[in-house]
UniProtKB/TrEMBL annotation:
Pfam families: MmgE_PrpD_C (PF19305), MmgE_PrpD_N (PF03972). Residues 21-263 form the MmgE/PrpD N-terminal domain. This is 2-methylcitrate dehydratase. Residues 285-470 form the MmgE/PrpD C-terminal domain. The lineage of its organism: Bacteria, Bacillati, Actinomycetota, Actinomycetes, Kitasatosporales. Signal peptide: none annotated.
Amino acid sequence: MIEHHVRVRPSADRLSREDQLAWKLAAVATATEEPDARCTAMAVNRVIDNASVAVASLLRRPVAAARAQATAHPAAEPGACVFGTRTRVSPEWAAWANGTAVRELDFHDTYLAADYSHPGDNIPPLLAVAQHTGRTGADLLRGIVAAYEIQVALVKGICLHEHRIDHVAHLGAATACGLGALLRLPTETVYQAVQQAVHTTTATRQSRKGEISSWKAYAPAFAGKAAIEAVDRAMRGETSPSPVYEGEDGFLAWLLDGPDADYTVQLPEPGESRRAILDTYTKEHSAEYQAQAVIDLARRLREKTGPPATVRSIVLHTSHHTHHVIGSGSGDPQKYDPDAGRETLDHSVPYIFAVALQDGTWHHERSYAPERARRPETVALWRRITTVEDPEWTRRYHDPDPARRAFGGRAVVTLADGSVIEDELAVADAHPAGARPFDRAAYAGKFRTLTDGIVTPAEQDRFLTAAEQLADSAATALDGLFPAVDTRTVAAYDARLPKGLF
């Protein structure tokens, strides 16, 4: 890997394009090396994972609203598919609808380092453009691997959240790079698209603070849509704000560390394999990633604590991120509010720990049902659970070695009789370093579970076969990545929604 030092530069320096981060990202994306078999196999896993959660969210209001907006923009052939419909739409609108469906349940893949990310958010815009432009399965997989490479590099090197900038600012750049790899565009074109994508997709973290709204699902879909539009504009020869990262009035200088900003971003050398996708991981449970190990820990503790009613208090010693973003250190009263919506509850580790301890399981719908959240014994236990930051868990969260990185914590449970039970778990069972790392069979199992009753068993089999053969498939086979569902049920749900402009 090559370490690229990125700092703010005055306009008078006239920083050359080749020395700008946006150019270096574009150069990695447009390199000619093909991804290796392990990386493309993992990309197939994530295509399956995305379809799982997209289909499971079809009858959720934010997804339906995005779908209605998209289907109001039908495209002349070829266009791109939208989950849950038979309508082909313009690719940027397909990315919008499908990106929202993938993100809605907070149940697809993750990568955590200096910042946060859901790299699978790159797949809907890449798939939409691949369909629209008649690309093959191998083209799509190449684009996915490139997008993951760029997003992981940015997430490792540039922290956004400490300045309250939402993590989709890195997503826009990654998607633009993935599209460049997919379409085999010139580096110059991708460089311009990256800069516009960063410039237009930077927003604050208020979308994940306080009373969390449906925008949490829309934010990455918006970034994907904007990245497609940025690539389209760059292909037409138009330019973008430059240098978007290093400029004295740019991203680093005014939104991140300021005029003295200095970051290190590691990117592959020419000829080096793009393997970052192998460092990312998916979710077994539908909740914020730091809650994955907490759910597994709560299920394990359930065998030791006895009835939850006997619990006097639970303190989870954990990392800075878990404490301040999804724990009691956030200062958000909504994280203890039984009337809070799902978007807030899946970012409340006290709630998640309480329900997992009581139920011994986790379900992407039942665990968030209003009647479940308002259950009196749950509310009582929930409000006895707090988090504290432990410097050692924070250090482990940021360990440079992915094999040693930890996203869990240590639970101290005090029972009514004063006795104390302690246990800890570093990573979720499904993590690559966990007790049951996710493999192809696990991804297929997740797909079958989430689509049960929505997609027929025969259609489940057909979809999984289409995904597994993606590397060798022709352009027309990309339509097979959209499992068939009862579109009449979907349309009937959509018809009940308020109408918008389109």
